[in-house]
Design brief:
InterPro entries: Acyl_CoA_acyltransferase, Bact_Acetyltransf, GNAT_dom. Keywords: Acyltransferase, Transferase. One of its GO terms (molecular function) is acyltransferase activity, transferring groups other than amino-acyl groups. By secondary structure, this protein is an alpha+beta fold. It has a single domain, classed as Gcn5-related N-acetyltransferase (GNAT) (Aminopeptidase, 3-Layer(aba) Sandwich). Helices cover 27% and strands 37% of the residues. The protein has a six-stranded mixed sheet, covered by helices on one side. Strand 2 and strand 3 form a beta hairpin. The radius of gyration is 15 Å and the shape is globular. The relative contact order is 0.18.
Length: 146
């Protein structure tokens, strides 16, 4: 999913080197702990349609963070992404946070439009990340209330 989402946005050699096993080790899939991120998985017809990872913000106290959301390219436009982000926001509200943030590639206009339709807006923060040989600019979006 991430390889499709970032094609043309991140160094292709870096994307080609990613494996599902290596990526899966980064996710908690519901391991307990208030600071531990949680991953929710959407399944349709016994196939993973997408997932969202969220938790308490790594940078700000009393703020939530959506750390990752990916939808299978064949499921784009079916509402899976909307259901995932709504479920993440509901769980974050349950943690008592008043707002949430997420980081998105500045050049990822499809993702940015998705977040904006869900009520997120850029808050002015930017950072540069390096994936493989190529630096990319990320912008932070914020939603208050979550």
């Amino acid at each position: 999913m991430w390889q499709s989402a970032y094609r043309g946005l991140i160094d292709q050699a870096f994307l080609d080197g990613l494996t599902p096993e290596a990526r899966a080790r980064r996710y908690t899939f519901g391991q307990p702990g208030i600071r531990m991120p949680v991953t929710l998985v959407a399944v349709r017809d016994a196939t993973i349609s997408g997932f969202v990872t969220f938790g308490l913000c790594r940078d700000e106290d009393s703020t939530g963070e959506v750390m990752a959301i990916y939808v299978d390219p064949s499921q784009l436009g079916t509402g899976v992404g909307r259901l995932l982000i709504e479920a993440a926001r509901e769980r974050l509200r349950g943690l008592g946070v008043s707002g949430a943030v997420l980081w998105v590639l500045e050049a990822n206009t499809l993702a940015r439009r998705f977040y904006e339709r869900d009520g997120w807006a850029p808050d002015g923060a930017r950072r540069t990340a390096v994936y493989g040989d190529g630096p990319v600019v990320e912008v932070r979006y914020r939603r208050t209330p979550v």
